[in-house]
Automatic annotation (TrEMBL):
Function: Involved in the glycolate utilization. Catalyzes the condensation and subsequent hydrolysis of acetyl-coenzyme A (acetyl-CoA) and glyoxylate to form malate and CoA.
InterPro entries: Malate_synth_C_sf (IPR044856), Malate_synth_sf (IPR011076), Malate_synthase_TIM (IPR001465), Malate_synthG (IPR006253), MS_C (IPR048355), MS_N (IPR048356), MS_N_TIM-barrel_dom (IPR046363), MSG_insertion (IPR048357)
Residues annotated for Mg(2+) binding in this entry: E426, D454
Similarity field: Belongs to the malate synthase family. GlcB subfamily.
Enzyme class name: transferase
Annotated Malate synthase TIM barrel domain residues: 332-572
Subcellular location, principal: cytoplasm
Residues covered by the Malate synthase C-terminal domain: 585-675
Name of this chain's protein: Malate synthase G
Residues that bear Cysteine sulfenic acid (-SOH): C611
Residues involved in acetyl-CoA binding: V118, R125, F126, S271, R308, P535
The protein's required cofactors: Mg(2+)
Amino acid sequence: MTQYVSRSGLSVAGELAALVEDQVLPGLDVTAEAFWSGFARLVTTLAPENLRLLDVREELQVQIDAWLVARKGQPWDSAAYRAFLEEIGYIVEEGPDFEIGTQNVDPEVATLAGPQLVVPVMNARFALNAANARWGSLYDALYGTDAIPGAPEGKGYDRNRGNQVMAWAAEFLDLAVPLKGVSHAEVTVYRREGAELMAEANGTLHGFKTPDAFVGYTEDGAKASYLLQHNGLHVALQIDPSHPVGQDSPAGLRDVLMEAALTAIQDCEDSVAAVDAADKTAVYANWLGLMKGDLTETFQKGGQEMTRRLQDDPEYLDPQGTPFTLPGRALLLVRNVGHLMTTDAVLFDGEEVPEGMLDAMITVACAMHDLKKTEGLRNSRCGSVYVVKPKMHGPEEVAFADRLYAGVEKVLGLPVNTVKLGVMDEERRTSVNLKECIRAVKDRLVFINTGFLDRTGDEIHTSMQAGAFVPKAEMKDAAWLHAYEDGNVDWGLKLGLQGKAQIGKGMWAKPDVMSEMLVAKSGHPMAGANTAWVPSPTAAVLHATHYHEINVVKRQDELKTRAQASLDDLLTPPLLAGRNLTGEEVSRDLDNNCQGILGYVVRWIDQGVGCSKVPDINDVGLMEDRATLRISSQYLANWLLHGLVTEDQVMEALKRMAVKVDGQNAGDPAYQPMAPDFDGVAFGAARDLIFKGIAQPSGYTEPVLHARRREAKALA
């Protein structure tokens, strides 16, 4: 039972009040009274508007449903549909052209292109791993994954595998930092000659094709680290002839260190299972530790106790011998929750306050510890706080977020626009009004991105009454999705994000399949995105190679000349439109989606795991969070509504797949089987997500998950 204390007319969970007053506020020029009274004013002023905006979502959906039902069975009429959406205010009038005016943005966001990690901040170990993923070993990323064919043999170092790795890395170096007249594979010595780095091969010295590729070094006898730069990213040649790997390299090259995850999103939203005051306090405590720089996590690995902490900044000498440092950690953004949910961590007049408002107040206050620093483990060197804001529907909701963070800045005494916002383009009303969404936050915008899963979930929910959707695997080839992905980049470039903000793309979901990622994910920088999500530090290292292959700035310049993506395509849902599926096709998709829902939900509900590698129906591990769940549950709700499956078929599939999921988790001592009774809280949650899917606001999974997780915690 949560114990509350009274603060400025608010009832604040005791553990949260203690965190804020004993750990967040000391060292800041903000008193506890100013903090809580300021937050109370924000709630009084803005919470009613938050509720009104949620009502608008529902009102628009009711009108869309009615329009679609009235035209059931008729051919799709894009012009009539677009006119209707304009008439009801779903599509807003487009204003004149403009460019964003965001200032004081760190280069990792504004000018550099590279991978971005997303990690649950509730898990301190994962949070630290992501923060420390700025630098990673290319040799390790290749050696231990399927990025190159085969796998290591034996328990010790596999020299044959190591030689494969070195050959792959040499080809990469030839692409990114080529030498004159020779391959890196032929080098026998890397040697600094004054302010130049030279490579000896076949008895001859060779310089680099790009004269300014060499930017720094450290040397300690035979050991050295030579720092190179290409497309704004650094690569360090680590020389150590005495190392087992270096001994097998003619040049003594023991590793290639890659600058990888330039940025990382510490997530308070889709990848965490934070359902009550205790959970929220844990989330905020970890974010505070990252901003102070003192977060640590001790754990057992391989029978040994290890402690993870934030990495220091690496130190180098420039070619003239002047010392300098580079950032040792990814620039951290924090993803707050959207406008929908409330939290019992703070009550106002006995009612839960909007969770997004509490996130805004506390995560920004935590980040003020970073703003006060002038040296050491700093996050932003430009004096900014980076917040990613998800699940906003249209310009009015984005403008509300701008008001909220402006209000937080005022309470905390921060200059206007200290808080920078990333707008996730994952709801259809945002996609069709993206220009005006950007306008609503044009002086603090640092990020727009696309995400197939949430966006498809909203596509299905918004168009639920239009008809049955095509099989899920086919949706990625639908015209609306191409218009969505291209339109996001088109508007980002047209409205001046280049050189000021990130244009991002979504997650690679298979953390154990790096060979496919190396082929597929080059498509993200080719699409004009200067960042894209990866599921692990290893994936960040490998994805970083794509930003050496492709100069994103040049690619963006090429894309500026293409025609704007079609709004009519964007508004056309991917429907079966009378096409009949075979029984096998229906059964396969039903089983696939039921298995995926159960595999994720059972960990979320029973163990509070918000993001994990969940085996799919073919036992391939996929990184899953609530976005995956949203699309699967809405997809089956759509097929139920339109008669492709029956409730009995769904229940049979859920029970059948529950047995499979139980088997996949048999090795987890904390796992609670769903079969044979099928009456547990987790199984009930999966059932609700499908059978009550149409009634869920915007098709979101949070209301069901939060209620069921609280139920499971109470039973435990």
